[in-house]
Amino acid sequence: MPRDIDVLVLGGAGVDTVVHVPRLPLPFADSHMIRPGITTRAGQSGDFVALGLAALGLRTHHMDLIGDDHEGDLVRALHRDHGIPLTALPHPAGTKRAVNLVAPDGRRQSLYDATRADGPDRLPEAAVRRLAAASRHAHVVITHPWAHALPLLREAGATLSTDLHDWDGADPYHEAYALAADLVFLSAAALADPERTMRGIAARGRARTVVATAGADGALLLADGELSHVAAAEPPGPVVDTNGAGDAFAAGFLFGLLNGEDPRRCARYGAVAGAHACTVPSTRTGAVTRTDLLARAAGTDPAQGLRPPAG
């Protein structure tokens, strides 16, 4: 079967309600008057990765469990509007939802509705196998029940990546993803010793590359046993929201990976994409384009244009 999908994104489809707050942590009070207000829109981790990949010209397909509800309609519309194929499997508990509290400096705190994580423990294997067999790479979001799909993806021969987000290095829920993936992303925010955690993932699992992002401090890159620091990219505008920056980083990195770039170059692409995401208000979507990514990664004016990499 021809692999006519560059990246199959599995999981992480949902809807966020974005609430702008005066600061974080939010001071206790009976009420707060907030501006610019409250907005509900489609877009969680898997959605943002898929949007970022598609904006960079990669053939992208998204698959997840989605409810027959208003929130599910928002997710379907998001993919339709951006031309991203979506395989929406029925979810009896409804579409995943979250509330994001966003401060004026762009920091955010997310509240996830855990009841939406309930549902079937197994996925339709035939559908997963079919899409995996047509994909060069699969990016798996750590939402239930996608851990069950990891062996199917491995059998199909696609390379795998995952994002552990703010893993503390100990919670066993994340381990199935961490040890099955060839490429692992995670945040350094909750790690006492990021290097130790990264080397542990590489030693115990399949990953040859592990990336720990650290916001404005850049990222740590462990590639084939060598640890290096990747500087943060300069945002192209004011930082207004950090939501989705890690997902954008993953999309930029995967763009480089699937174009045959070395890990440091991939990480540079990730840093540029993540910095761009921080300038996009959480009430809308706006992933960096291929032209802008290549130009900013090279340190040139995007208007000048660059010849894209092969692939």
TrEMBL record:
Protein name, per record: Adenosine kinase
GO terms assigned for molecular function: kinase activity
Record-annotated Carbohydrate kinase PfkB domain positions: 38-287
Source organism superkingdom: Bacteria
Record's keyword terms, sorted: Kinase, Transferase
PANTHER family in alphabetical order: RIBOKINASE, SUGAR KINASE
Coiled-coil boundaries: none
Transferase keyword on record: yes
Keyword flag Kinase: yes
Lineage: Bacteria, Bacillati, Actinomycetota, Actinomycetes, Kitasatosporales
A Pfam cross-reference name: PfkB
Cross-referenced InterPro entries: Carboh/pur_kinase_PfkB_CS, PfkB_dom, Ribokinase-like
